[in-house]
Design brief:
Distance between the termini: 54 Å
Shape: globular
Strand content: 15-25%
Helix content: 25-40%
Number of strands: 22
Length: 481
């Protein structure tokens, strides 16, 4: 029996799990996919928002500002890349300048530091590639960029280091309350728990509606993105937003924490939470709208496109807290969900600890170390590591300079990678210009060797993403049989 079962191993679920592990107790994360960060958390803008956009007094505003403040300490504890590059919200029409003032005033009420209003010329002075149509801007110095994969992995691995159990390929099919305990129904049997945390992303409404009379309606909101090569990464130095509309913050142009340039997203409500494909129309929209604010975006340098879903709840706010006895929602977590996740984890874990009377975990270890980044090491440090283990000198991914040693660390880690995407998110092998065209076979060989799997058993991500279907040539034994 567990004190708490967290349903969902995205950034919110992993944040809740890590904060729960600060207390004594038995905790479990149940995830329908084979790894952490397989749902909404894997495909977003990777922005740590300042907090000026959310309506004052909402949970979005509170969690956004608190989550932003937590990121400096958290990035050091979890060994993840994070940069405060600042953001500009640009206005393209004189008649809409009052909306910039509204955002500024809202940010001041929310407690956002480092806000200022700029003229169009002042904005272009710090961001020369803004278009001539930009007539004003809101500068938010506390905005930043992070790697969503590494943040989610860092939170999840930290939770696991501190005793939280993870069960993957564990889809929750039902929930039952007997007056004392919850039975979380899965294909492999019931999981009994005193409390349940619903952090299921676009599926959070389904779980909530199984047990609550006050129903939620969550709409998957589709966003398409283009990722450009690192040679385009310096086209802007801040995240550049356009004034937000009713479907979100609009198309942005932003450096990534790894030096690429990100453009997107679109915003379209869809019915299917399994939607994964980009569209020609959506990518055309990204290219066109990005050019309204930023001139000469080098779209010829696109190396990949992707699509993400956001969990939009009709009330346009996060749903946090105990909805029925022992059932805690962390639902409707759309933007600024990535920023807010650490604060949401803190909030939900505190509620559960108070409810169950959990004692502090005196042996909680806040430090987690990620896979070493050989390409980023000083030459002397890299040489010493290679001398200790030559596999760190065997480069598998040429684009991102990822070594065999790093891939082995990813596979053998606390929540070890079992798929190509799992390796990619932990090491960046396959994220470069050739998009895994060179390194995939070599990564597959390492996975096959280390996990004792046939190549036909290696998957890109989920169970239906087989890469090798069969051998084209049968092996011949020494006796010719």
């Amino acid at each position: 029996m567990y004190d708490a079962v967290v349903i969902g191993a995205g950034v919110t679920g992993c944040a809740v799990a890590r904060e729960l592990s600060r207390h004594e107790g038995r905790f479990l994360v149940a995830e329908r996919a084979p790894d952490v960060c397989e749902g909404t958390s894997k495909a977003n803008s990777a922005i740590i928002h300042a907090g000026f956009d959310a309506e004052p007094g909402t949970l979005k505003a509170e969690m956004n500002v608190r989550g932003n403040l937590m990121m400096d300490r958290l990035s050091k504890e979890l060994d993840i890349p994070f940069k405060r590059i600042g953001a500009l919200v640009v206005c393209l029409r004189e008649e809409e300048l009052p909306k910039l003032r509204e955002l500024y005033d809202r940010g001041i009420v929310n407690g956002v530091p480092g806000l200022s209003l700029l003229s169009g010329d002042e904005a272009r002075a710090i961001e020369p590639n803004l278009t001539g149509e930009v007539c004003g801007a809101l500068l938010a110095k506390s905005s930043g960029v992070v790697c969503p994969f590494e943040l989610t992995l860092g939170l999840g691995e930290s939770a696991a280091i501190n005793g939280v159990e993870f069960r993957f390929d564990t889809k929750v099919s039902g929930l039952r309350w007997d007056g004392e305990l919850w039975a979380v129904e899965t294909r492999s049997g019931d999981i009994l728990a005193k409390t349940v945390v619903n952090a299921a992303g676009v599926y959070a409404g389904e779980l909530h509606n199984m047990v609550c009379e006050d129903k939620l309606h969550i709409t998957p909101r589709k966003g398409e993105y283009c990722l450009l090569d690192k040679t385009a990464g310096g086209h802007v130095s801040h995240t550049v937003f356009q004034l937000p509309g009713k479907l979100g913050k609009g198309v942005l142009v932003s450096p990534t924490v790894h030096g690429n340039l990100l453009v997107g997203p679109t915003a379209m409500d869809v019915d299917d939470p399994e939607t994964a494909a980009t569209t020609a129309g959506g990518l055309k929209e990204v290219a066109e709208k990005s050019g309204w604010a930023v001139k000469n975006v080098p779209m010829r340098q696109v190396i990949t496109s992707f699509m993400g879903l956001r969990a939009h709840e009709d009330k346009d706010d996060f749903i946090l807290g105990e909805s029925v006895e022992g059932f805690f929602d962390a639902a409707g977590i759309e933007s600024p969900g990535l920023t807010s996740a650490p604060a949401i984890g803190e909030h939900i874990a505190k509620l559960i600890a108070e409810k169950l009377g959990l004692k502090p975990n005196r042996s909680f270890e806040p430090i987690r170390r990620g896979v070493p980044k050989v390409a980023e090491m000083p030459i002397a440090e890299r040489a010493a590591l290679i001398e200790k283990d030559p596999r760190y000198g065997n480069i598998i991914c040429r684009c991102e300079e990822v070594s065999e040693g790093e891939i082995l660390d990813a596979v053998k880690g606390v929540l070890g990678a079992k798929t190509l995407d799992g390796v990619k998110r932990r090491t960046r092998a396959g994220m470069g210009r050739c998009q895994a065209g060179f390194c995939s076979p070599r990564v597959m060989e390492i996975l096959s060797r280390e996990l004792s799997l046939d190549l036909t058993e290696i998957r890109k991500s989920g169970k239906d993403s087989q890469i090798v279907l069969d051998k084209t040539r049968k092996e011949v034994s020494p006796d010719g049989a």
